[in-house]
TrEMBL record:
Lineage: Bacteria, Bacillati, Actinomycetota, Actinomycetes, Micrococcales
TM segment ranges: 16-49, 56-78, 84-105, 112-134, 146-179, 213-234, 240-259
Compartments, as annotated in UniProt: Cell membrane; Membrane
Protein name: Probable membrane transporter protein
Keywords for the protein's UniProt record, in alphabetical order: Cell membrane, Membrane, Transmembrane, Transmembrane helix
Length: 265
């Protein structure tokens, strides 16, 4: 563990750099495997292992997600499993929703939001056992689905602003369950949606000094080396097995959020 300066910015050390690389390697693999940004792992890891302040951890994680998501998008796009139009619609909604979520953060009771989201995750976990996506399924774009994608992006952005969660945790299962996407298209589209959202958030965080750019670069570069491997594994495992793995991932997230919700303010 590294030492810290007064605002929670770690003083770099060989062991700290090694931890950053390890975090990046793990986050990159999970990003490619599940179509998530990896922030759900990066934020608690840099807080507990390296002593980052909470805001600095969130900002650094978001910056690291940019190159990770780009590599993930390329990995899925090579196999034609990215819906570019759907990703743009999701991103349009998410950017606006994140602004509202940030505003509501100081207005709404966070505990109630956390428990509500935990309940949502558990419903999704059960649903993933009931619906097995076809690898040939695509998102059917029409007026209703276009509006639905923008609304989904908006709600995802609100949750991101309120709870600091990555959009993929919501977008991937919803694209499968509500829009009939294959698991691979859902993951590839989710990663593409994150790119403009993460860039927008990172610009704001840099202005506020909430990003450790060196740490983000180390994590991001390390993550880029394993993201493609995660995407390859995702394409090899059968859809039902992919659902099981994603359900287990969501259960881990839900358990972590339960511990957060039970903590005293």
């Amino acid at each position: 563990m590294s030492g810290n300066d007064p605002i929670g910015r770690p003083v770099r050390s060989p062991s700290g750099i090694a931890w950053l690389i390890g975090i990046g390697l793990t986050a990159g693999f999970l990003s490619g495997l599940f179509g998530v940004g990896g922030g759900i792992l990066i934020v608690p890891a840099v807080v507990f292992l390296l002593g980052f302040g909470q805001r600095l951890a969130a900002g650094t994680s978001l910056a690291a997600i940019v190159p990770t998501s780009l590599v993930g998008v390329v990995s899925y796009a090579v196999n034609g499993t990215v819906d570019w139009v759907a990703a743009i619609l999701l991103a349009i909604g998410a950017i606006g929703g994140a602004q509202l979520g940030s505003y509501l953060l100081s207005k709404l009771p966070k505990k109630a939001l956390q428990w509500g989201f935990i309940g949502f995750l558990l419903v999704v976990v059960v649903s993933l056992f009931l619906i097995v996506p076809s690898r040939t399924a695509e998102i059917d774009l029409h007026v209703g689905s276009i509006i639905g994608l923008i609304v989904l992006g908006f709600l995802t952005g609100v949750l991101s602003g309120l709870l600091g969660i990555g959009g993929g945790v919501v977008v991937v299962p919803m694209l499968i369950l509500l829009f009939g996407a294959s698991d691979l298209i859902a993951k590839g589209t989710s990663l593409l949606m994150m790119v403009p959202t993460a860039i927008s958030g990172t610009i704001g965080n840099v202005r506020r000094g909430n990003v450790d750019l060196t740490g983000a670069a180390i994590i991001g570069i390390a993550a880029c080396t394993t993201t493609a491997l995660g995407a390859i594994v995702a394409s090899v495992v059968p859809p039902f097995v992919g659902n099981l793995l994603f359900a287990a991932f969501l259960v881990v997230i839900a358990i972590r959020m339960v511990f957060q919700a039970l903590k005293r303010p």
